[in-house]
Amino acid sequence: MKLIDARKDHYRKLAHEQGFRSRAAYKLKELNRSYRIIGPGFYVLDLGCAPGGWTQMAVKLAGNRGKVMGVDLSYVDEIPGAHIIRENIEDESIIDEIMYYFNRKVNAVVCDLSPQVTGNWSVDHAKQISLNYSCAKIMDKVLMHKGNAVFKVFDGEYSMEFRDYLRKKFAKIHLTKPMASRKQSSELYCVCLGYSN
Ligand SMILES: C[S@@+](CC[C@H](N)C(=O)[O-])C[C@H]1O[C@@H](n2cnc3c(N)ncnc32)[C@H](O)[C@@H]1O
Questions:
Q1: Cα 50 to averaged position of ligand 1 atoms, centre (Å)
Q2: pLDDT digits over 134-152, tens only?
Q3: How far is CA 159 from the centre of its chain?
């Protein structure tokens, strides 16, 4: 077995054993260990949350005093400790629904958005970055001062422009690839700390 396949298998097995719905949960866990994006008592908004691995991990990291909401176009089975809504993040009217649930601004916004891929790399990349700009619009309305964010980025022509756009809003930005992310995938994660509004 190749090292990459062994690692892929490792995270899938872990997710199965520990009751996480996706191996992606370990990407958030790893990012959080390095950058402390989510802490106990945090209010967390998870955009593009199906099937729910990040939401489950966010519930765990935020603990009893935290509050977590997940949003996806797809149906997501209930997650204890989280509130899930089936909506399109490109629809800005969901901001009211988000603020109604939290009743204050959130400490962290995490985005693991992927469009339905067409197989045409430039189209998929452009669409993924465009989804990220939509998330950033929501973030600007709901994230508290000094809050944190994470964005998955399909790396390509527009990724640095998106990173620079975020750089103006945060004290620190880190572009990184967690071990749990497949080596051959072109995804990166942009970790943003210390929002200034
Ligand atoms: C890679 S999956 C997220 C995996 C998730 N973080 C987990 O750990 O289980 C990406 C998700 O983005 C969602 N998505 C794509 N476009 C969306 C949109 N416009 N509004 C809401 N969700 C969207 C997809 O439905 C898909 O479920």
A1: 5
A2: 999 999 999 999 999 999 9
A3: 16
